[in-house]
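User: Fold both of these, please.

Assistant: Here is the first one.
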Amino acid sequence: MKWRLGLMCAWVLAMVLATAARAEDTVKIGILHSLSGTMAISETSLRDVVLMAVEEINASGGVLGKKIEPVAVDPASNWDLFAEKAKELIVKEKCVVTFGCWTSVSRKSVLPVFESNNALLFYPVQYEGEEQSLNVFYTAASPNQQLVPAAEYMMSEEGGGYKKFYLLGTDYVFPRTANKVLKAFLKSKGVPDENIMEEYTPFHHQDYQTIVGKVKKFAAGGKACILSTINGDSNVPFYKEFANQGLTSADCPIMAFSVAEDELRAMDVPPLVGHLACWNYYMAIDTAANKKFVADFKMFCKKMNLPGGSDRVTDDPIEAAYYGVYVWKKAVEKAGSFDVDKVRAAVYGMEFDAPGGKKMMDMKNQHTLKPVLIGEIKKDGQFKIVWKTPGLVKPDSYSSYLWPDKSKIPAPTGGPK
């Protein structure tokens, strides 16, 4: 009996030591994206591309000699559950960084969790601005890198010289605040109130018959366009109803801020030809680096038996999610530590090559310097790039159209405790 007890104790001790050794050899990162619910149409691919980046990094030796262990959770498009899952990743799983969120309401939900724990979130989706947390790095566009250039383009002779704007969005913080910025910009350019319409629908809204009827009436006199901040799977019935009522891009073009190649996979694309989107990356970028990124993502999805397999596409949030992992890796190696405060300091001013080209992290405001690209939908579900900035655009965390007096811009929140 003593012999057996001694053997069991030795086995338990060996297991404990082996587990401890594995823990010392790995570092956990969190992945916080909806894999179910209304936002799964957009967010699932971000989980997938973060896993691809992790596999690549582990294959090349990991980070500071440690292999990355990804911990993916599903907040299921439930904004309160986002906060619970964020806390689980930080407190229970001890993740040193988290990559995640799509909607601004999900980001707002988790922000207090990251700030109270001085944890780090890389947020990969364009947003409305009006925020600067020391606990978040924003790898996608701020309003002056998407919303304003898109509206400027639509007003220009090159973009069609539009004079009437229907602001249509999902009813939450991003569209509401984005449209505040857009209205302030349009009014600064002399657009009268009667030429600006504003309307919102709830998440997962499916019946757009009445709204499209209003759009049709609004556009009857010509020179009208839609600036769309509809998010998630509501885009499918919206574009379908638009086509059903006989409207085309020639009648009233849609400039979308949340429809990219990944969303187009779920739509009947031919009726959408000619409509527009404004992003900072497109799958169609014709460079060797981007072609490799696209091919690698398709191969990864096929190898992992992910839905869509080798037919998968890349888009702006996918690229931003992907290079966010590499920005974090580079900062950790520069800092020689996984410590949040040291990593944060190492990110500022970092220049790096992304699949879509060179980019740079801002020196101060947690955002990313990026080019701005406007694309036109093609019948194959890709975009033809019809306009782009000559170089990188510096991000504004607070819009100059809402904060003309920069001295009154709020100080950053969060940071070291």
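And the second sequence with its predicted structure:
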Amino acid sequence: MKHDIRGAAHSTIIDWVEPDSSVLELGCGGGELLSRLVTERSVKAQGIEIDDASIYLCVQKGLNVLQEQVDAALRDYSDKTFDFTIFDQSLQRVVRQPDVVLEEALSVSRKTIVGFSNFAHYRARYQIFFKGRTPVTASLPYEWHDTPNLHFLSVADFRGYCDSRNILIEKAAFFTGSGPTRWWPNLMALTGFFQISRGIPAG
């Protein structure tokens, strides 16, 4: 039986988010995650989305959503406006300057949750090494010409990014096609999810 990675990942995020928190989801799509957070965690939810059809779905769910490009969305918020900001696959798909936007997210919220498809999954490596082709996997299901992804990163890439910028990884979860995993996530995981916050400045 195929594992519902998206549903499991959303359940993990919901478990991480504290009840009654204020939450901003960037690139919220049709509002599936935000809707569950409102129902199951009683959060004060705000979404950012650019697609008209997705915004319509959010409005149908009773969600508060602003139509704006994610790269420009955080500039008008003051520090620690939210308890959580969330990127559920949106960092790699809709954010053109992830380094800038992540820094802004860590400023406007106490904690940031980032989820993405792992480009270093062993099936992706196999397709690149043996076939010389852009990989297509369960978490990267698109051909090169129709992919929504702007950035391709791995679990190791994100860990290295956090280390280099004094970003604290508080929690992490990884998912395969058959369920959660803790073993060799950079090789085995199809998707990775991290809860991060601003670390204590060095020195």
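The first helix runs from residue 5 to 16.
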